[in-house]
Task: inverse folding
C-alpha cells in the first residue's frame, strides 16, 4: 500500500465511518471553479460541518495524484495543497488491515507520505516482462496476414517476421514506458483491442511446437472472454464481468482479490468501447486512469465517493454494482443535496 506500514495495535486503529473525496473535489475547494464557485464553496462548508460525524481520510491514490509530473520547484504549492487537505483529513490515512479484512485509518502527516512516494519513485525500476513470456517461444509469423496498424507490426518487420521473447520483452518495455503518459499510444492500442478478432485455428497453425500451442491456448483461455465482450451492451457486460475479470487476472495472479478487481479492473474496463475515457494529451492518459482505479478501491468501504469526473463515477458505479459494493457514488451537487 505504497509504503504505509501499520505498526499499531488493532484496538488503536480508527474504524470510523468515512467519506472519500476524489482529488478533483479537493482541488475545486482549494481553487473554486469560475462557473461553479458557489457549488465548490458550499461543498467546502458542508465537509467542514460533516467532520463532526465522518472521517475524510486521504490515501495512496491522493499521493499518486499530486506526485504526478512533480518537480521540486513546485514543493511549496504541494505543501499548501496538503495543508488545506490536512485540515479536512486531520492526517488520517486509509490503509488495508489484513487482520480485520477491511480499511482502517492511521495518523500520518500527508507530506511525510508524499516525500516517501517521491523517493520511491526515484528508485523504482522498470517492469521485467521476461517473467511473463515463454522463454522458449520463437517462431516465424506470416507477415502477409498482419495489418500495418497492428501494434506488433514494426517489431516483427525489424526481425524479418521472427518472434522471440527477447524482442518481445524490449517491445513491451518500450510500450510500458510510453503508454501511460502518451495518450495517442494508448488510444491506438485501445482501438486495436476493440477490433481484435480471434482466428484460433489460424493462430495455432502458426505455432511451431506443441509447447507454443499450449501457451497460446493458455492465453486464449484467459483473454478470450474479454475479447468476445466487445460487442456486449452494458447490461450484458455487467452480468458477465465477474467471470471476464477473473479469467483475465488469473492469467498471472494466483489470487484474484478485490483490490486487483477494482484497481486493475478499472483499467481493463476502460478498454471496453462502452467505457472509453476521453483522452487528452498531458492531461488525461492511461496513468490518470490507473490512478482513478486506485480511488475506486480506497472508496469501496466509504459511505460516499464524491467525484466531479463523470467517467470516473460511471466506471466506479459499474464495478460497485458488479461486486455488491454499497458506497454511494455521487457528484458534488448530488452530495450536497444528500445533506441539505
Result:
Amino acid at each position: 500500500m505504497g509504503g504505509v506500514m501499520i505498526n499499531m495495535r488493532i484496538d488503536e486503529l480508527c474504524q470510523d465511518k468515512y467519506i472519500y473525496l476524489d482529488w478533483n473535489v479537493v482541488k475545486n475547494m482549494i481553487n473554486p471553479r469560475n462557473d461553479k464557485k458557489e457549488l465548490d464553496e458550499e461543498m467546502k462548508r458542508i465537509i467542514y460541518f460533516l467532520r463532526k460525524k465522518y472521517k475524510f481520510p486521504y490515501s495512496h491514490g491522493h499521493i499518486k495524484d499530486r506526485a504526478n509530473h512533480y518537480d521540486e520547484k513546485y514543493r511549496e504549492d504541494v505543501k499548501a495543497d496538503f495543508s488545506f487537505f490536512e485540515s479536512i483529513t486531520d492526517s488520517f490515512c486509509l490503509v488495508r488491515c489484513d487482520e480485520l479484512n477491511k480499511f482502517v485509518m492511521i495518523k500520518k502527516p500527508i507530506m511525510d507520505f508524499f516525500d516517501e512516494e517521491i523517493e520511491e519513485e526515484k528508485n523504482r525500476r522498470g517492469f521485467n516482462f521476461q517473467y511473463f513470456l515463454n522463454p522458449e517461444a520463437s517462431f516465424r509469423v506470416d507477415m502477409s496476414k498482419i495489418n500495418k496498424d497492428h501494434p506488433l507490426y514494426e517489431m516483427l518487420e525489424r526481425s524479418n517476421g521472427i518472434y522471440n521473447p527477447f524482442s518481445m520483452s524490449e517491445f513491451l518495455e518500450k510500450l510500458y514506458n510510453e503508454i501511460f503518459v502518451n495518450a495517442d499510444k494508448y488510444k491506438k492500442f485501445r482501438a486495436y483491442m476493440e477490433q481484435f478478432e480471434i482466428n484460433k485455428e489460424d493462430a495455432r497453425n502458426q505455432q511451431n511446437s506443441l509447447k507454443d500451442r499450449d501457451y497460446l491456448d493458455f492465453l486464449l483461455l484467459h483473454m478470450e472472454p474479454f475479447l468476445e465482450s466487445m460487442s456486449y451492451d452494458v447490461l450484458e457486460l455487467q452480468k458477465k464481468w465477474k467471470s471476464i475479470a477473473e479469467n483475465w487476472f488469473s492469467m498471472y495472479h494466483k489470487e484474484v482479490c478485490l483490490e486487483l478487481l477494482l484497481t486493475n479492473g478499472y483499467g481493463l474496463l476502460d478498454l471496453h468501447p462502452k467505457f472509453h475515457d476521453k483522452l487528452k494529451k498531458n492531461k488525461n492518459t492511461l496513468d490518470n486512469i490507473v490512478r482513478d482505479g486506485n480511488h475506486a478501491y480506497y472508496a469501496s468501504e466509504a459511505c460516499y465517493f464524491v467525484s466531479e469526473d463523470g467517467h470516473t463515477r460511471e466506471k466506479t458505479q459499474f464495478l460497485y454494482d458488479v461486486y455488491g459494493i454499497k458506497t454511494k457514488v455521487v457528484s458534488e451537487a448530488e452530495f450536497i443535496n444528500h445533506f441539505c
About this structure: The two ends are 35 Å apart (CA to CA). Strands lie at 19-21, 92-97, 102-107, 139-140, 162-163, 304-306, 328-330. The first strand starts at residue 19 and ends at 21.
